Structures are given as C-alpha cells and as structure tokens.
Amino acid sequence: MELIAAFTAGLSVFLLAAYAIRARALTPAESRLRFLTPRRDVRIEADEQGAILRRSASSIPAVTRLLTRRGYAERWAYDLERAGLSLRPGEYFLIRAMLAVVTFAVVFVVARNALAFVIGIALAVVAYMLPAFWLKMRVSRRIGALEKQLVETITLIANAQRAGFAFSQGVDVAAKRVGPPMSVELNRMLLDVNLGASTEDALMAMNERVGSDDLDMVITAILIQRQTGGNLAEVLDNVTETMRDRERIQGEIKTLTASQRLTGMILSAWPLVLGLLFAAINPSMTSLMWTTTPGIVLLCIWATLNFLGFITLRKILDIDI
C-alpha cells in the first residue's frame, strides 16, 4: 500500500509539474524572437531592431537566473532548440529534478533503511541524467536528419542561382521543396531576414542554432563567397561533391567496423545474459547478488564497469572524418 501511495503521489506531482511547464512553454513567436536577439558575434544594427521584442529580466524565472549564472542556461537553450523542443532551460531543469525526487521517494518508501537511502540516491542521479541522454539522442537524430537533406537542399539552391534567382529566393524554393526539419530551419532563417537581420547574420544564427558540422562547412563557403565574390552555384556544387565523398567514406568505415561494433554489443550484453541464465538455473544462490550488501556492491561495480566499457568501445569506433 505504501508503494502504491508513493507512486500515485509522485505521479500526481509529476503530471502537475508537466502541465504547468507546458502551460508556460514558449510560443513559436517567442522562441524565434529569443534567437533573434543579438549575441556576442552576431550583431544587428539598431535601426533594424524595431520588430524584435526582448524578454525583460523580470520575466525570467528564478531557476533560469540561477542556471544563467552557472552557465547552463545558454547551453541547454541551444540543446533544446536543436532537439526541436519548446522548453526553457529552467523548465528542463525542473523536469530532471522532479524525476530524481520521485525516484528517490519511491525507493526510500519501499525499503526504509540505510541501504535503500544509498540506492535511492544512486537511482535519483540516474533518473536526473536520463533526460540529458534522451535530449542528446534527440539532438543527434535531428542533426542526422538535417544532414541527410543537406545535399538536396544545396542542389536546389544552386539550380535556383543558375536560373537567375536571388539567394533568398533560392532558399525559399528549397524550403518549399524539402521536408522538415530542414524546411523548418530554412523558414526560420528567412523569418530572421524578414524581421530585419542581414543574410549573413541569419546564416550565422542558423549555423549556431543547428550545430551541424556539414552545415557549418556550407555556410562558411557561402559567407566567403558573399565577401569575395564569384559564382555561388559553382561553389555550392563543389561543396556538394565534397559532402558526397565524405558520405561515401563514412559508409565504407561503417562497413569495415561493423564486426567490431557487433562484438562490442555482444560483450556488453553477455554478462547480463549469463546472469539471467544463472538466476534461472539456481535462483537461491543467484539471489544473493541482490539480497545481500556485498552482492549489491558487486552489481553496482559491474554495471559501472560494463557501462564504461561500452562507452569506450563506441568512442574507439567513432571515427571522425
């Protein structure tokens, strides 16, 4: 009964917090205006800022002000933007903190002793970090989807340049032809220009907002061409050819390292499979691993070392081109 009550109370608090957070989520206009605010290296002239609204310092929650002083707010703001989420850094932090508190409360209510307190803290830390891993995966998937559409987008812009369109018109044509998420970012860039930002500032803001290395190469080539002159369509064709070569090399590397990646996954999962097999064969003996303090300590050590080994193998096989 205590477990059910604790779980119900924790779920109620979490749903209430989630409802409050969604009610305070940024509207699309507020989200765009936030990234139109001049930054360190992206300056908009004073006479071009008439349509740009800035949030006052009093409208920022206390949690966000604390995160800003710690340096987390800016990094989380861009991570949330790159993931396509309309959450503020303070709201993102409250979600993570709420998950940690609910996890610790549930574990401590189930077994009220010193060991449960330690395990509850450990699981609370894991629960606090889970949204960060999920956010990183979401950012990676979105950047990957953008990079897959990048060659098609550049080709459309280059063809529009050959047909006599201006650069902004070519971007508009590409935004109408390709699907999201690339079309979303292109429309945001065009919205920046329409609200008074220069094309260079809008491109740099898009580059900082997306966080893709391939897009950074494309935007750098466009900015250099706008400063030095030349045939933009030819420059974009050369960039496209370079990206196609990189994609081909990445495919070859994935093929050559497929066996090693499979070996790493098997080595990471094999101890868990053996543990389940031993538990099925001799449950009374295997249960000592989670019913005694030394067994729990050994399980924690195994989980930590297994996780570190899996991450190490992934880093070794992650070859950057």
In brief:
The protein is an all-alpha fold and 321 residues long. It is 80% helix and 0% strand.
Q: How is this structure best described in words?
A:
The protein is mostly helical. It folds into three domains: 2-143, no CATH class; 150-244, no CATH class; 257-317, no CATH class. The protein contains 15 helices and no strands. Helix 8 (182-194) packs antiparallel against helix 9 and helix 12 (258-281) runs antiparallel to helix 15. The protein is elongated and about 80 Å long. Residues 23-60 have low confidence and may be disordered.
Shape: elongated
Output the helix-strand order: HHHHHHHHHHHHHHH
The number of distinct helices, counting runs of at least 4 residues, comes to: 15
First-to-last CA distance: 56 Å
- Kindly state the number of beta strands: 0
Fraction of residues in H or I helices: over 70%
- Number of spatially distinct domains: 3
What would you call the structural class? mainly alpha
* Proportion in β-strands: under 5%
- Give the averaged pLDDT, no decimals: 76
Low-confidence stretches: 23-60
Biggest sheet statistics: none
Radius of gyration: 25 Å
Question: What would you call the quaternary organization?
Answer: single chain
